[in-house]
Every structure is written in structure tokens, then in C-alpha cells.
Amino acid sequence: MTRRELREQIFRMLFGAEFHAADEMPEQLLWFEETQAEWDAEDGAYITGKCSDILAHIDAIDAAINEAALGWKTKRMGKVDLTLIRLAVYEMKYDDDIPVSVAINEAVELSKKYGTDDSPAFVNGVLARLV
Fold it and tell me: At the fourth CATH level, which superfamily is domain 3-130?
């Protein structure tokens, strides 16, 4: 899988996490991995590892988002936008392998695919305030 494809799978898993209790996440990760035929063992380990790490940092990530998003709090944001912003913030702050500009660009590109017409500008605006 390409990095973009891996990132999209991570986004999809994180988005699903919004609708389940935290104690259900191990089962959800396992189910998601089993239902994604295009994953090999290495990709699956990477994706589930990143998701777990993002969820472990979610309080700090949300605090940074709440501080940067003027007039918006994470509770008011659309789930797609919030998930993409969380993923990008994680990559910007905790993943040294991904340049900040790439994290922002990828979040904006995914917002064009999964979000509303306003999502790319919103995602870009919030992330730009974090740089």
C-alpha cells in the first residue's frame, strides 16, 4: 500500500472509533483488519499501530485543536473534519517521518473526498494555525 492508502485506512478506522466506546476499540480494530482484504500483515500492523497510538494521544491532540480552532471546539466539529484534523495533528506532532506540509496536504486531500464542500478550507485553516 502507498502512504496515502495507509493514511486513508487509518482515517477510516479513526472515524469508526467516533461511534464506539473506548473499551470496544480492540474488537473494532480487529474487525476492521479482518474485513479489509487489501491489507497484508505488514500494512495491518502499521495501520492498527498508528490508530492505537493516535487514540492514546487523543486528549493532547484535542487540546491542541481546541486551542487553535477559533470559535470551534472539537465537540462542535463534523466528525469527518475532526478525524482528519486529529490524524494530521498526530502526524505533525508525534510522527517524525512525515513533514508538516505533507500532513496538512494529505488531510486537505482526504477532506475533498470525504468531507463537505467547506471541509478543505476548514481543515486547512485549523491546521495552519497549529504550525
Answer: NusB-like (1.10.940.10)
